[in-house]
């Protein structure tokens, strides 16, 4: 069974609504990040500073705005994914939705937990960041594969896979390149995060255009 985003060769209205939710989440994130970075009292570098610094109360004047963007992504990415797979039972669609849930949980933790580990307890902010990044990029691979099965082009699939793989490689770099000898930490992190936003925007535009051609 293929994803139900197609009906007699066309993208459903539900999928189109989900696509617009994804565009809104991505646009909101990049605007919030740029505004929050510009508001930092000290110089903030996209290359050498963590994204989470922009959401840290006491360090970022517009932490509320940045955290709102994380929450919006958590909700809208999952909502959009659910609309794309509504009523479907294909295994790949289920995997896609499961990792969208993981991404959402991670983004909610990033938005609400700002401190590091307390005593011997876990670093929930770090856990959230890992879940958001890993879950999001695996969702990219699973989602693009399911959409490809529904009739999307090979070019779309190739670009989508490249984004998902790039995101996971950057996540590995973020975890392993602790000495910052290869790339600055901000580059690794943004490569692993931006891949998800780029894919959801690409997919959203692709689905909207697909529906327009029906």
SSE arrangement, N to C: EEHHHHHH
Instruction: Briefly note the structural class of the backbone.
Output: mainly alpha
Helical content, roughly?
55-70%
β-strand percent reads under 5%
Describe the largest sheet.
2 strands, antiparallel
List the total number of helices. Answer: 6
Number of separate domains: 1
Strand order of the largest sheet: 1-2
Distance between the termini: 21 Å
Whole-number radius of gyration?
A: 17 Å
Mean pLDDT comes to 86
Principal-axes geometry comes out as globular
Q: Which runs of at least 5 residues are low in confidence (pLDDT < 50)?
A: none
Work out the number of β strands.
2
Kindly describe this structure.
- The protein is an all-alpha fold.
- It has one domain.
- 69% of the residues lie in helices and 2% in strands.
- Helix 1 (13-38) runs antiparallel to helix 2 and helix 5 (154-176) runs antiparallel to helix 6 (185-212).
Task: Set out the fold topology.
Elements: E1 6-7, E2 10-11, H1 13-38, H2 63-85, H3 91-112, H4 124-149, H5 154-176, H6 185-212
Antiparallel strand pairs: 1-2
Helix pairs in contact: 1-2, 1-6, 2-3, 3-4, 4-5, 4-6, 5-6
Q: How do you describe this structure in short?
A:
With 214 residues, the chain is mainly alpha-helical. Helix content is 69%, strand content 2%.
Q: Which key phrases capture this entry?
A:
mainly alpha, 2% strand, 214 residues
């Amino acid at each position: 069974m293929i994803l139900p985003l197609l009906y007699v060769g066309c993208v459903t209205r539900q999928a189109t609504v989900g696509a617009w939710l994804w565009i809104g989440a991505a646009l909101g994130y990049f605007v919030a990040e740029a505004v929050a970075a510009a508001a930092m009292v000290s110089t903030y570098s996209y290359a050498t500073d963590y994204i989470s610094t922009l959401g840290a109360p006491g360090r970022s004047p517009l932490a509320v705005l940045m955290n709102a963007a994380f929450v919006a992504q958590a909700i809208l990415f999952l909502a959009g994914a659910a609309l794309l797979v509504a009523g479907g039972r294909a295994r790949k669609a289920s995997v896609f939705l499961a990792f969208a849930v993981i991404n959402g949980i991670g983004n909610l933790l990033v938005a609400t937990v700002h401190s590091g580990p307390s005593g011997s307890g876990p670093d929930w902010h770090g856990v959230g960041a890992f879940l958001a990044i890993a879950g999001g990029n695996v969702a990219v691979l699973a989602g693009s594969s399911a959409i490809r099965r529904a009739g999307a082009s090979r070019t779309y699939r190739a670009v989508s896979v490249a984004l998902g793989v790039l995101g996971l490689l950057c996540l590995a770099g973020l975890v392993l390149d602790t000495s910052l000898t290869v790339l600055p930490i901000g580059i690794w992190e943004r490569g692993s995060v931006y891949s998800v936003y780029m894919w959801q925007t690409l997919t959203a535009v692709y689905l909207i255009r697909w529906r327009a051609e029906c």
